[in-house]
Design brief:
By secondary structure, this protein is α/β, with parallel strands linked by helices. The chain folds into 3 domains: 177 residues, Rossmann fold; 58 residues, no CATH class; 336 residues, no CATH class. It has 28 helices and 10 strands. The strands form 3 sheets. A 6-stranded mixed β-sheet has the order 4-5-2-6-7-9, with helices on both faces. A hairpin with a 2-residue loop joins β4 and β5. α15 packs across α20 and α19 crosses α28. It is elongated. The relative contact order is 0.08. Bound molecules: guanosine-5'-triphosphate and magnesium ion.
Length: 675
């Protein structure tokens, strides 16, 4: 639980500041435990989850190793030095621009064959390197034994076995880092003559120095890698001559060069693995191996249940019912929020704060700003602490448990076919599900998707139809008065999501996505990780919402002093009335411009004040769910997708939210539905 005290570094901004400290950079495939090791050594916290692509931006912290302070850097997972997705590119760019003290290449020991090619590429890049064979616990359960010292000799770099989740081997890793000094390792990969020749030619054409070896840059150039091309252009290298070598070499081979080089590298990896690794699934005593076997087939059976639609869909519905409806909607939004908002803040804290403040500050204008109806304390802080935090907290607890089991990649497989109809692959399930936590974080996670088209559709749907945890909690809490109301809300939002997804896939050009996702083993969530992760996300969320809520309170205060507030609310009153709501509901949409959850909080207050009918509540919930993305999400969308796409999305979303609200209100009132 020491982690609780750590700075959290899962922020949305890429931090490129350089410190004077020697740097240790963690690199490796996704989902191998880099962030667990980062959390162990550094004073910052990076989120750990059981699916590939948890870390999508660089995280930094400081850590004492062998009595010396280092800067520790965690990077997004990458499969090879030639990236496919954006989060891999983040790591590749980092490699191009860093001269660290040492790289820790973290690999999953039970998948050595698949992971060592990146080690060989890093050796080819002639960077200072230590290989960390992590997840030794899972490898030994599978009867995998690795001869560490033989592997060290073969590769020419230090190799350390760890089970980072239990802290095993990390002391040895610390000692190895402390005594590390760079010794160039021999690059033993034998490429065929044409490729070898081309690498030699291109590297001799490179005049400048790079953070990685010229041969490694040459290999990337041979594969027309975008980042490598950018780097050599910056250094005014002879691009034309390089292009000629590349073209000539491509002609020599009937297969793409990437394929040929991957196969040739893999051949060498296979040779190494067969000499250093033994695999005996029946290892151990008779009893032990039987237990392992049955454990294996047990998790395979669960896997099947989760992935096959006949059983997978009912399981998904159960997860939603208990996780969201009962726990977030019932317990958090009902019991906890009720107590905090109405009793604790409403009856005790706020009256006391108002009285104390007013007795010290006798100026009504200032009183209004801090403790008035829309005051910084009475509205912004109360909303943030008593309403948003319990909802977000409850949601993140459920969410962390789901993440840590490895359920999300299985859900991705289950839903892949439905997602293909919306122009996305099953992989997009992960950012979409994360959107229920916080759409701002989730928009960044669209980096893990392969095609631009898929990224645009996913960002669009996140902005349009996925309610964030706080908003969802409020809506679940309010709509719990009638299961019919909740069903109407869910069907309309689900339908809109599928319809817009389907239409976007027809309109937005681009290649069809292919589905590839690594399937991590199912794991039992660790309580400490669930708590630390929930705490760090709540902290992040709190500092994200509180300033915006405070700014909203201040703007409302200025607006009320100048009369602009009434005008804005009156203007928003019109679309409210079009969808059958009282004009006062304009206030809620006005809040919604700041954040959707702020709007939802306004809706909660109107509901408590008995100002809305059953139909009104459903229509308002639907419109608010489909309403504008919040400011933070909009900014991240601008950063990830560009200003044009972001503005186009917002322009479409705003009127369409009211159009859907109008239709639903029309249908419900025409058919005389009473809720
Ligand atoms: N059994 C076992 N699980 C581990 C070990 N190390 C990490 N894990 C689990 O592996 C999963 C992935 O860990 P992370 O630290 O998030 O992996 P990462 O390499 O940072 O992944 P990305 O951010 O996706 O690139 C989590 O569920 C961890 O609990 C280990 O040594 N043994
Ligand atoms: Mg990570």
């Amino acid at each position: 639980m020491l982690h609780i005290l750590k700075k959290q570094s899962c922020c949305c901004v890429e931090d490129d500041t350089h410190s004077d400290l020697d740097r240790i950079i963690l690199v490796g495939n996704p989902n191998v435990g880099k962030s667990v090791i980062f959390n162990h050594f550094s004073d910052s916290y990076a989120v750990v989850s059981n699916y590939p692509g948890t870390t999508v931006a660089v995280s930094k912290g400081k850590g004492l190793i062998g009595g010396k302070e280092y800067e520790i850097v965690d990077t997004p997972g990458m499969y090879s030095l030639q990236p496919i997705t954006d989060e891999e590119r983040v790591s590749q760019k980092y490699l191009f621009n860093s001269k660290p003290f040492v790289y820790l290449h973290v690999v999953d020991a039970k998948n050595l064959q698949r992971m060592l090619p990146l080690t060989l590429q890093l050796i080819e890049a002639r960077v200072p390197l230590i290989l960390v064979l992590n997840m030794m616990d899972e490898a030994s359960v599978r009867g995998i034994r690795i001869n560490e010292s033989k592997l060290e000799k073969k590769l020419g770099i230090p190799v350390i076995c760890t089970t980072s989740i239990k802290g095993e081997g990390l002391d040895r890793l610390e000692d190895t880092i402390s005594s590390y000094s760079y010794q160039p390792a021999e690059n033993n990969v034998k490429y065929s003559r044409g490729i070898d020749h081309a690498i030699g030619m291109i590297s001799s054409l490179l005049g400048s120095e790079y953070a990685i070896s010229k041969e490694a840059v040459a290999e990337l150039l041979l594969l027309n890698d975008v980042v490598a091309l950018e780097e050599v252009k910056k250094n005014n290298e002879d691009i034309e001559a390089i292009g000629k070598v590349t073209e000539g070499t491509e002609k020599e081979y009937s297969d793409p060069l990437n394929y040929v080089m991957t196969i040739e590298r893999q051949e060498y990896v296979n040779e190494i693995v067969s000499s250093v690794m033994t695999e005996n699934p029946m290892a151990g005593t008779g009893q032990e191996s039987m237990r392992k076997e049955s454990g294996h087939s047990f998790s395979e059976r669960i896997d099947k249940l989760l992935i096959q639609p006949l059983t997978g869909i009912p399981i998904l519905l159960l997860v939603l019912y208990f996780g969201l409806y009962k726990f977030v909607g019932g317990f958090a939004a009902g019991t906890v929020v009720d107590y905090l908002e109405s009793t604790l803040f409403g009856e005790h804290i706020n009256p006391w704060v108002i009285e104390t403040f007013n007795s010290f500050v006798p100026y009504p204008v200032v009183q209004d700003l801090f403790v008035g109806e829309y005051g910084i304390f009475t509205q912004a802080v109360t909303y943030a602490i008593a309403l948003i935090m319990p909802l977000v907290g409850a949601f993140f607890i459920v969410f962390s448990i789901i993440e840590d089991t490895g359920y999300l990649p299985r859900l991705a497989m289950l839903i892949d076919r439905a997602f293909k109809k919306m122009g996305m692959s099953g992989r997009a399930v992960i950012p979409m599900v994360l959107g229920f936590g916080c759409a701002t974080m989730a928009t960044m996670v669209t980096r893990t998707l392969e095609t631009k088209r898929e990224k645009v559709i996913a960002s669009m749907l996140l902005a349009l139809a996925i309610p964030c945890s706080a908003q969802l909690g409020v809506i679940l809490g309010i709509l719990s008065f009638s299961s019919k109301a909740l069903a109407i809300w869910a069907v309309v939002i689900g339908f809109e999501l599928m319809l817009i997804g389907y239409l976007s896939s027809l309109v937005i050009p681009g290649e069809k996505p292919s589905f590839f996702i690594e399937m991590p083993p199912l794991r039992l969530p660790k309580l400490s990780n669930v708590l630390v992760k929930t705490y760090s996300r709540m902290q992040w969320y709190f500092f994200e919402v509180l300033p915006l809520f405070v700014i909203a309170s201040v703007l409302i205060w200025i607006g009320r002093l100048t009369g602009l507030f009434d005008i804005a609310v009156r203007i928003m009153g019109y679309p409210s009335q079009w969808i059958g709501l009282p004009a006062e509901a304009g206030l809620m949409f006005f809040y919604g411009f700041f954040r959707r959850d702020f709007g939802a909080a306004g809706l909660f207050d109107m509901y408590n004040a008995g100002m809305l009918t059953g139909v009104n509540i459903v229509v308002a919930s639907i419109t608010l769910t489909l309403f504008m993305p919040c400011i933070a999400q909009f900014l991240v969308t601008v950063k990830e997708r560009g200003i044009k796409t972001a503005v186009a999305m917002a322009t479409f979303i705003f009127p369409s939210a009211f159009a859907v609200g109008f239709i639903v209100n029309y249908l419900l009132t025409t058919f005389g539905v009473v809720l």
